[in-house]
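Reply to thread "Modeling small-molecule complexes from scratch"

Following up on the discussion above, here's a worked example others can learn from. I took a protein sequence and the SMILES for guanosine-5'-triphosphate and predicted the complex. Inputs first:
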Amino acid sequence: MSRKKAVKGKGSSKSPKASPSSGRDGGRTGKGLAAAAAPSSGLVYPSRPSLSNSGEFYDISFKVMLVGDSGVGKTCLLVRFKDGAFLAGSFISTVGIDFRNKVMSIDAVKVKLQIWDTAGQERFRSVTHAYYRDANALLLLYDVTNKASFDNIRAWLTEIHEYAQQDVVVMLLGNKADSTHDRVVKREEGEKLAKEFGVPFMETSAKSGLNVELAFTAVAKELKHRTMKEPDEPKFQLKEYVDKEMRTAGCCRS
Ligand SMILES: Nc1nc2c(ncn2[C@@H]2O[C@H](COP(=O)(O)OP(=O)(O)OP(=O)(O)O)[C@@H](O)[C@H]2O)c(=O)[nH]1
Ligand SMILES: [Mg+2]
C-alpha cells in the first residue's frame, strides 16, 4: 500500500465564500479555506500517493466535523485530542471554521483525520452548512452543564439531515462530564436521545481527557472499515464497539 504524508498544523477560515470541496490534502499552506479544502468525497484512496509537509505518512484520509452550540467545548475537544492539552481560562469563541489534522493507526492502517472545528454561534451557521456535504463524520456535542445545548441537539440533527451526506457517521457527545457540580443533563438523558436517533453516544471531557481518544478512534475505525472492508469481513459495528470499549474501561477513560 502506498503511503501519503499528512498535512501539518492548523488551518482556518473566516470567510464563507470559498468552496469547501475543491483541492487535495487540505491546509497544505495552513492559510485558509481555499488551501484547506479537500476532495468532495472527503476520501483519499490508498492507491493514490500524496505528499505534504508534516512528515507523517498516511494511507487514507477522512473529514470529521465538530458541531454543536457555542461554548460546548468543540475547540477544547479538538485541542485535547490533537495536543493532549486543555484550553483553560477565558473562552475564545471560534470564528468561521478551523481545522487540524491527526494521523491515527487503526488496525495497522494509517488514517488521517482532517478535523473541522466549526463555530457554534448562529451568525456563522451558513459557513457550517457549506461544509456539511464534505464531512464523512460528525461529532455532535452538547454541554452537560447547559440544558439549552442539549435541547438544541434535535435541531442540530435536523440540520445534519438536511445538509450532510446520507451515510455520514454521527456520534453524540455529552461534553464537560468532569463538571459534576454543575451538571444539569444526566447521562441517561443523553443515552435516551442517542437511542432515539440511532446514533452512538458517550460523555467526554476535554478537561480531563475522558473518552476523547475513544470518540475519534471509534469514528476512524468506522470510516476505515467502510472504505477497506474485505468481502468476507464482518461489518464493523460502531455502536457495539463504543459500548464494549466503555464497558471495558468502566465507562471512563482518558
Ligand atoms: N469543565 C470543562 N470545561 C470545558 C470543557 N471543554 C470546554 N470547556 C470550557 O468551555 C468553554 C468553551 O469551550 P470551547 O471549546 O471554546 O467551545 P466551542 O464549542 O468551541 O465554542 P464556539 O467556538 O463558540 O463554537 C471554555 O471556557 C472551555 O475552557 C470540559 O470538558 N470541561
Ligand atoms: Mg470553538
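What I'd highlight from this example: The helical segments are 33-36, 74-83, 125-132, 147-151, 153-163, 187-197, 212-228, 238-248. The first strand starts at residue 4 and ends at 5. Questions welcome below.
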